[in-house]
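User: Can you write out an input/output pair for a complex, sequences first and structure second?

Assistant: Here is one pair. Inputs:
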Amino acid sequence: MINFFLKLFTILSLVIPPIALGQESKEIPELTMGWYYPTINAMVSRADFHSAVDLWIKEYDHAFNIKNTNVKLYDHIENMRKDFDNGNLNIIIAPPLLIVNHFKLKTLADGFTGESITNEPFDIVVLARKASNIKTIADFKNKRLVITDHDELGKVFLNSLVIPKFKQPYPQVFSSTQSLLKQNAIVHKLFFAKADVGVVYLETFNLMAELNPQIKKQLAIIDRFPIKSPNYSYFHYTFPDTLRKKFIKTTLSFNNTLRSKEILNNFRLTSLIECTVESLAPFIKLSNKNKQLMKLLK
Amino acid sequence: MAVKIRNRIFLRVFILFASLVIVIMLFFAYMIIPIQKDALQQIMYTQGVTVSRSIIQASSDAVITNDFGFIVEHNVEVLKNNPSIHYVAVAPLRGNTIWVDQKGWRVLEKEKKSLTELQTETIKYKIKLGNIENQGYHFVYPIKFSGIKWGWLHVEFSTNEYNAYIRSMYLKLVYIACIAMTLIVFIGYFFARWVTRPVSIISKVATQVANGNLNVRLTIKRHDEIGALSNSFNKMIESLQFSKKKLENYNQQLEQEVKRRTLDLDQLNKNLDKKVKEEVLHRQEQEQLLIHQSRLAAMGEMIGAIAHQWRQPLNALSLVLQNQSINYQLGKLDDKTMNQSMEKSERLINKMSTTIDDFRNFFKPNKHAELFNINTSVISTINLLDAQFKSHNIIININCEKNLIIKGFQGEFSQVILNLLNNAKDTLLERHIVNPTINISAHHIPNGINITVQDNAKGVSTDIINKIYDPYFTTKEEGKGTGIGLYMSKMIVENNMQGKLFTFNDKDGANFVIEIPTNERMPLI
């Protein structure tokens, strides 16, 4: 349970500065944060997450001179987009590809995201078992794939790799596709030869290899797609600019306290960094490429 | 009497109490520590069983389907949530062992001997010793499904908690020991004081009583044996006090009685002294009388002796006178004859005069001790009786050493010899002894002189031999003996000469022996 609160606190810290912004802030009648839940489903249960967020968010009432604070969890990105467009959400937290695919970029204002403790990008990587004789993408044919649920970026990236080669989307290239909740399980499946190819974050792979160096001996990275963090946070463009900057400034100094560092370490994050709307460019490019490839298949 | 500190009951009770508490505490610690260790090991065993079953139950599907990924993931989570577990190792019957510890996990390419040696049909465990970091409780649980053996689950628990608990237990024991020692000091002091204080008070009061103070009392108010002892002691003091008063009264009465008796005794003593003096005086008078009688008797005998001595010269003188008368009638009395008769008469008269002088000297009392020769004295005494002995044909043999000179009263010694010779003579005559003989000898003996007067008158009858020295005892005919001769002789020898006079018989007759010691008062020259 303690771990849960630590996780929750860290995740929330990515998007909401926990320190008061000062008395000069203009009174905001309501602050609502929208969270795309499926990406964190593997880490915490909905009930625990919701209870913790409710408890935590109340502390911001007085700190930010806000009369009312809310957190909304979304299982469907479309609903989240509608609320954001309608002005019901002030901040959104979601995987960057989903933001690119479902939100209007002009409605977004700069926010923040996390930075890996290894100072390496999280990156999406495609792993393959060396024992399966997979050295290039061309060897994927009829191999067993294992992939994470709701990992839209992974799936799009995988398609961007296999469609040019096989003229087929990835489900048809692999002999089987297994979806798992946790990325750790994907690495284990590969290691114990229950699958041949898998898509995970590089951070996860490095972490797993750190726990068991044998993993790096048995698995190889076939390709990778750069990404700073699994989730990006952006404000609504109507959110007061001064207040938003103060939010960001406060957020960037989040790791100044020992307790905060411990929390970030648990998620293998060393700090929070500013995230501009322009940071979404690689994902826009990937999305567009994927759309073109899918058109070609049709 | 002061009691040494080490002998004090207080100290002994205190030490006894403290020793008992320490012994009980040590015994308790000795008993409880192994029990606690066993209990802790049992807890670890139970923990091992619980954790193993939990892991196997959670991983059962994965085990059956050989989903080692899940097994790893689950065990990583288990280790993450249980820092006290060092490692979990899943060793399938076929395949490599999966090792998960707090740092990570791996597949063992080679079997570890430490794992395989414990892989049996039953649950095994082993306590691993070594450094604190390496100490652990290695628990091995065989994995079976529907009776089919699949493999083994190894779980090693940290014994830190166990060690910490043991350390904590030791610390608690030390803590308890410290508290116990403190309590021993305080409670033991008060306990010992509580136990011994009445005894101490009783001892002090008893000492005061022993020193004579009977006005003290014990004030111990208790309802136990000490209280009863206190009451009894007080009663005893009261009894002593009562007895003392009674004794004092007795003493007073006794003192009065003693005073009265003392007065009586004083009076009696005074009377007794007077009586003793009177008796002594009387005795002395009696003795003087006896001596006087003795002297008178001696004088009587001496007169007879003188008569004997004078008879011969008187006859001779008579003959001289008769011859003178005849010669005168015959006209033959010439000058020559006259002178011869005169010379002879003078010689006879001188002899008679000498005899008188001898007897007078004999009876002349000696006022001072003087040196005299035993032999000479004996011969002088014999000379006094010489006429009588010759008239009765009694042979006198003298065998005295010539140089026996002692210091004393010669007259008294001669009187003793005279008495003995007279008695011998009388006995010889009375018993009509043929060839009557008296032997007188004197010679040295160790530390003295022995003078023996021996006769051949067949001895003194044994019936009277013990009575012959009693005063007025005599065997002679009435008018011949007074019965004081031997008595006086004995008195002279024993009182004036510090000697002994005794009698014994031999084959011939009686032996009267005088033994005179030679010392400062009676030296032998």
